[in-house]
Design brief:
hydroxypyruvate reductase [NAD(P)H] activity, globular, Rossmann fold, 324 residues, 12 strands, seven-stranded parallel β-sheet, 12 helices, NAD binding, binds (2R)-2,3-dihydroxypropanoic acid, 2 domains, five-stranded parallel β-sheet, D-isomer_2-hydroxyacid_DH, alpha/beta
């Protein structure tokens, strides 16, 4: 601490007024207000004196940490924290926080939306109508796949997984299987979901939704073998991180009919390159990583990130330190 006695922090994105007010009360803060996304070299030049940084979508690695010797905490405005080099942060004594809990329902809504959109071909048939192709007697050419009473397999049963299971079980009367690092007996009791091995889940589900965080163990978990295990009429949805999927294998699965369709919010490379084969596929619904993109949810995430950063700087446990 120096100057006005408050810790210096840099906020790498615009934040709502109440978050800014909170930050100003507790920190000596500089905020990037745009226009557009903060350039990486501006981030690098801003962090030199900072004890705290609040950001989203930037890698927290040696390049950043070498430029910020006073840094004590990086607060990610995101629930996924795969952009953190945790080993290096630990070695440098820099805490990492994230925003669990405040976006679960918003992301679960989107997962359900992608599932429905792919099952009933909503974007494809929207385009069909708008292009003036609707004629009487189209019939079977427009058929989709039922969601109600089908079996949903959830890969990664954290809070978002439970929020999705609730929608599926109680809104759509679906059977729900889940696969997770640890079994969740409370969720099994409360939601009536059943634990399954990875392979059993893939071969037994009509819909597979990937929600597992990106870790060394989950990187590329949906590979050729995994897609080949799925039912030929199954739909795959990913709202986690693109690198959990071998995209080349997914392209083959979709184009060669190993599975029926997909709904994607995330990609190996983002923004997804215009030449990606996925963008030319009618059976693949593509969104621009908008899992939490609702104003209130983003405001809640920003406030939680701000409070977490301040807690660490004041020597308190924020309850949002990223898991090992
Ligand atoms: C997150 O917070 O990790 C989500 O990807 C936001 O959409």
């Amino acid at each position: 601490m120096e100057g006005n006695g408050l810790p210096k922090v840099f906020v790498a994105q615009p934040v709502p007024g109440e978050v800014e007010a909170y930050l100003k009360e507790h920190c000596d803060c500089r905020i990037w207000r745009g226009p557009g996304r903060l350039p990486l070299d501006t981030l690098f030049s801003e962090v030199g004196e900072m004890e705290g940084v609040m950001l989203s979508g930037f890698k927290v690695n040696g390049e950043l940490l070498d430029r910020s010797p006073k840094l004590r905490v990086v607060s990610d405005v995101s629930v996924g924290y795969n952009n953190f080099d945790l080993e290096l942060m630990r070695a440098r004594g820099v805490a990492g926080t994230h925003t669990p809990g405040v976006l679960d329902d918003t992301v679960a809504d989107l997962a359900m939306g992608l599932l429905l959109a792919a099952a009933r071909r909503i974007p494809e048939l929207d385009r069909y109508v708008k292009d003036g192709n609707w004629q009487r007697g189209d019939n079977e050419a427009l058929f989709g796949k039922d969601v109600h009473h089908a079996t949903l397999g959830i890969l990664g049963m954290g809070r978002i997984g439970e929020a999705l299971a609730k929608r599926a079980r109680f809104g759509f009367d679906m059977e729900v299987l889940y696969h997770n690092r640890h079994r969740k007996p409370e969720a099994e009791m409360a939601l009536g979901v059943r634990y399954a091995g990875f392979e059993e889940l893939l071969s037994g589900s009509d819909y597979v939704v990937l929600l597992a965080p990106l870790t060394p163990a989950t990187r590329g978990m949906m590979d050729e073998e995994a897609f080949r295990r799925m039912k030929p009429d199954a739909v795959f949805v990913n709202v986690s991180r693109g690198e959990t999927v071998r995209e080349e294998a997914l392209v083959r699965a979709l184009s060669e009919g190993w599975i029926r369709g997909a709904g994607l919010d995330v990609y190996e490379k983002e923004p997804v390159p215009r030449e990606s084969p996925l963008l030319g596929m009618a059976n693949c619904v593509t969104l621009p990583h908008i899992g939490s993109a609702v104003a209130q949810t983003r405001a809640d995430m920003a406030m939680l990130a701000a409070r977490s950063m301040v807690a660490v700087l004041e020597g308190r446990d924020p309850g949002t330190i990223v898991p090992e």
